[in-house]
Amino acid sequence: MKWMKIPLGPLQTNCYIVYNDQKECVIFDPGEEAAKLMAKIDGQRLKPLAILLTHAHFDHIGAVDKIRNQYKVPVYIHKQEETWLSDGMKNGSQNFLQYSITAAAAEHVISEETQLTFNDFVIHVMETPGHSPGSVSFYLEKEEIVVSGDALFQGSIGRTDLYKGSMDQLLKSIHTKLLSLPERTIVLPGHGPTTTIEEEMVSNPYLNGF
């Protein structure tokens, strides 16, 4: 199994594509620039199986509909944010951009921590709220990676001053969920460079003294 990171849009939100030897793939957070993303997918001759959203802020959903329609794949979102896809106030686009970025309703709503399986992709859904109430992280144990959305970054954590954000909740999510993963786990964050659980346990200043 391999993965690639594709920063998209004005906020350079990281979209991730995880793919296998059969060229099947799962897409995480297609935030913007659908044409650029499709060029990567088609250039590698990949066959998308699903779109998984860590949360529904506008910079993570901007290309959802175009990618979904192009490849006829389902979208997964947590139930706490299923209505955010169509609401520019909740997903932040109205406040930040003064116009709405929206997407059609997700085909699948995640209601609890669970395991998603797409052929040989086995993905554990971890509820990691705080940055937003429906934030989730996607852990691929065999590949030793976790797609953390905007919960945990290299040397930082997600902001909590947006709609229904909570610092206490975010810190609890990070410490009880993400930092419980094996230290060698590679963290694929929503923005910026990749890191590891070990690196953040040792050096992330926002996590000291919790």
TrEMBL record:
Domain Metallo-beta-lactamase residues, every copy: 12-191
InterPro entries, per database record: MBL_Glyoxalase_II, Metallo-B-lactamas, RibonucZ/Hydroxyglut_hydro
Keywords noted in UniProt: Hydrolase, Metal-binding, Zinc
A GO MF label: hydrolase activity
Any Pfam family: Lactamase_B
Residues that span the membrane, as ranges: none
Key word Protein transport present: no
Alphabetical list of SMART domains matching this protein: Lactamase_B
Cofactors demanded by this protein: Zn(2+)
The UniProt record lists the keyword Transcription: no
Family matches, as CDD domains: metallo-hydrolase-like_MBL-fold
Matching Gene3D superfamilies: Ribonuclease Z/Hydroxyacylglutathione hydrolase-like
Record-given protein name: Metallo-beta-lactamase domain-containing protein
Species of the source: Bacillus coahuilensis p1.1.43
Lineage: Bacteria, Bacillati, Bacillota, Bacilli, Bacillales
